[in-house]
Amino acid sequence: MKPPRFQYCAPSMLDDALILLERQGDEAKILAGGQSLVPLLNMRLAAPSYLIDINRLSELNYIQPEDDYLAIGATVRQSQIERSPLVQEKHPLLIEAIWHIGHMQIRNRGTIVGSLAHADPAAELPALLACLGGSLLLQRSTGERLLATEDFFRGYLETALEPGEMVVEARFPWVDPRAGWAFMEFARRAGDYALVGAAAVLTPGEDGTCQEARVAYAGVAGAPVRASEVEKLLLGSTLDERSLDEAAQVARAVVSADMSDVHATVVYRRVLAAELTRRVLRAAWARRRM
Amino acid sequence: MMHDQGELLAFTEECEIAVTVNGQRYERRVPVRLLLSDFLRHELHLTGTHVGCEHGVCGCCTVLLQGEAVRSCLMFAVQADNLFLTTIEGMAGTQSDLHPIQQAFLEKHGLQCGFCTPGMIMSIHALLHENPDPTEEEIREGLSGNICRCTGYQNIVEAVKLAAERLRVAPEEVE
Prior knowledge:
The complex is a heterodimer of chains A (290) and B (175). Chain A has 290 residues and is an alpha+beta fold. Chain A has helices at residues 14-24, 37-42, 78-83, 85-90, 92-98, 104-107, 112-118, 124-132, 149-152, 228-234, 241-251, 266-286, and strands at 7-9, 28-31, 50-53, 63-65, 69-73, 135-140, 143-148, 153-155, 158-159, 166-173, 180-186, 196-204, 210-218, 225-226. In chain A, a hairpin with a 2-residue loop joins β8 (153-155) and β9. Chain A starts with 6 loop residues before the first strand and ends with a helix. Chain B is α+β, with helices and mostly antiparallel strands and 175 residues long. Chain B has two domains: 7-90, Beta-grasp domain (Ubiquitin-like (UB roll)); 100-169, DNA polymerase, domain 1. A five-stranded mixed β-sheet of chain B has the order 2-1-5-3-4, sandwiched between helices.
C-alpha cells in the first residue's frame, strides 16, 4: 500500500510553515501526528499535493496553564498530556477522555490539536471541547483568530478552517474544583471510535443541587453536540434516579436521524445515548466536592 | 514574502535521511511518501517488522521510535530522520539468545503463526518499560493495539506475566 505522490516539507519555524501554507492554499495539508491523515493517504481517500510536516515546530510544543484555560500547542502529543503531572493534577477530565483514544501506539504520535482539526464527530476531544466550551486558535501568515467550539466544527470532517490557516492551539477551560466530571463511551473493541461517547461536568450549588451542567456527545451527529435540553433538566436537581431517567429520555433526541451506518443503527445509538447519559451523569455527580 | 527560501523551505519528493536502527546508522535517499514500515523492510531488509493492515489498526508493524511504541505504517521514513528506532531484530542478543519477552512467548505458547508476534513483542517491551509490574487488566490494555488472529490472547497475557516477572528480577539495559 502506498500513499499517492505528494511534495513534502518539514519547516522548523512556524512562520515558514504559515508562508508555505498560504502559498499552497487548499492544495496543502498539515501533517502533525498523522494517525488520521496517514491512514487516509494509505487508502487513497485523501490526495493532497503538498504535505507540511509540523513535527519540527518546537515552538508549538507547549502545555501552558492560563487563568481560565489550559492551552495546548499544535505539536503536543496525546501521550504527553497523559504523562504530564500538571494535567494529571489540574485537568484530570482531559486525561480521562484521552484514555479512550485509540491505543498507546496511536497516542504516542497523535496530537491533541490534530484530533480536533481532523473533526471526526465520533472522536473524543471534539466532544470534550464542546462540553467545556473551549476554543481554538487559528493562525495564518497575516494574522490569527480565536473560534469557539460551536463555530469551529461544521460537520463530518468539516471545520471553519480556511485555506492558508492552521490550528496552532487548543484551549480547554478549567473545570470548577467543586464540579464532578466524567467521560465515557461505548465502542465494540477497545480503541475503536466510539459508537456514542458522552462527557459531563456537573457543578453543585450551596444547597446541594446541581447549579451548572455541561453535557456533550460524540458519535451522535455530524459534529460534536452539546445537549442544552439535557443540561436544563438537571439544573436544581439532585441527580436522583428520576432526573437521571428523564435526562436519559431526553438524550435520545441528541442522536440525529441520519446516524445509521454499518456500525450501528440510529435506534441502537439512541439506546446507547440514553444509557451513557445515565452512567456519565451518575459518575460525574459522585465525583463532586461538597 | 521576503523570506530567504533556503533548502528547508522547499518542497521535495525525495530526501536524504539518516536513521539509527538497533544501534546501526543507515543513510539512504528515499521518496517522501515511503512509509517507515516499507523503509525498514524494503530498504534496510529488516523484514522482522511485519505489515498487516497498513492503516494503523492491526499493530503488526509496531516499532520503538525513541523508545516509544509507534505504528511504522503511519509514519513516513523521512520523519524518522535523525531519530533512533528499535525493531524486533534488535531484541535478541544473538540468534540463540532470546530476549526475555521472546523466551516467555516460546515457553507459554504465545504464538502460532507468528505474524503478529514482532508487533506484540515491541508493544510489550514498551509497556514493561513504563510499567514493570502490570496488572492483568493493564496487560490487556497494553495489548489492545495488537491483533492476533490465531493463538488468542490468553497465552500472550501469560507470556507477558512471565516476562514481567523475569525482567523485574533481572532488568535489561534499555536504550
